[in-house]
Fold this sequence. Notes:
Layout: H1 2-12, E1 21-28, E2 31-38, H2 42-63, H3 71-78, E3 84-85, H4 88-103, H5 113-116, H6 129-136, E4 144-147, E5 152-155, H7 168-182, E6 187-192, E7 195-199, E8 208-214, E9 217-227, E10 231-236, E11 241-244, E12 247-250, E13 264-271, H8 274-287, H9 289-298, E14 303-308, E15 313-315
Antiparallel strand pairs: 1-2, 2-6, 3-5, 4-5, 6-7, 7-10, 8-9, 10-13, 11-12, 13-14, 14-15
The chain binds adenosine-5'-diphosphate and magnesium ion.
Amino acid sequence: MRGLELFLSLMLAAHTACAGWLHEDADIMGTRITVELFHDDTAVARQGVDAVMAEMRRIDSDMSPWIETSELARLNRDAATRPVIVSDELFKLIRTSLHFSDLTHGAFDITFASVGFLYDYRKGVRPDDRQRQQATELINYHNLLLDEDSHSIAYGKPGVRIDLGGIAKGHAVDRCIALLQAIGIKQALVTAGGDSRMIGDRWGGRPWNIGVRDPRDEKKLVAVIPLENVAVSTSGDYQRYFEENGVRYHHIINPTSGDSARGMHSATIIGPDATTTDALSTSVFVLGVEQGLALVNRLPDIDAILVDAKGQLHYSDGLLPAKNPANNVKPPAPHPQP
Ligand code: ADP
Ligand code: MG
């Protein structure tokens, strides 16, 4: 989420002068990775930053569908012919993905990739209607057969593919936060593209400020939220897309049509961990404003800020003091441009 990065980098300028605070960016997983953290001992802080970048690279090389040697690519190549034994980590993440498929009645479905691979947003390539309809028949998470005993996965039909693009960055952020906590770091922010998680407070005891960008103007923010000890993810129709005859084709796919979901411009989800917020931001984007908010309002500890297809903002009940007087989360006020 470019807007988030821009805003955070402005906020970061303030602490680079403070010993023990480190900030670093890198391009990994086809996105911008940012880590900012504090430890009294600068050597430990340095170790934390390096551990985050190494972990991001490791997860990319295991889970990218585009790296031929990745575990995920091997699964897509072989699992329609025979069950493939996978690592604990990949098995669990696929199992978690299926949990979100159940929770969202299939709005979140990693087998979207059975049609997703026919799009190339950079080159402006998309399937024609016939190709799209045929490939869409293969989208169904029930086509993934998991064997808990052997940790193997088989695909029920030839042509099925998976892609963890809607959940892997959140998972990576959670793994990195766990690594940081294990070496004693108590204040940190880790961001991978649109997925962030923060622990502790920021320099000077202030909360982290997360900006939600205007989906149609990368220089503007539509909201700024003070947060601590939570994760936040945004899915938008502006990250990877092309336009043809006034229609926007972007990277979030409605599993029932195999076409881009067009019910909103962006979905921001706040929750306890980044795997959850990543999966839910993609899901709520697909579900649209009404069903998306209904889902979020049913889930404990989850909140949402949505920008609908007309550019209007919508908040979940937990962010509205009128509906939730006990809540001390302030409604995010529109923010002047930084
Ligand atoms: P990003 O941060 O990469 O923009 P998002 O969290 O917004 O990611 O999710 C978009 C990604 O999720 C797509 O690039 C694709 O890999 C994957 N995806 C698209 N549609 C779906 C879907 N219906 N269910 C699960 N994953 C999806
Ligand atoms: Mg997501």
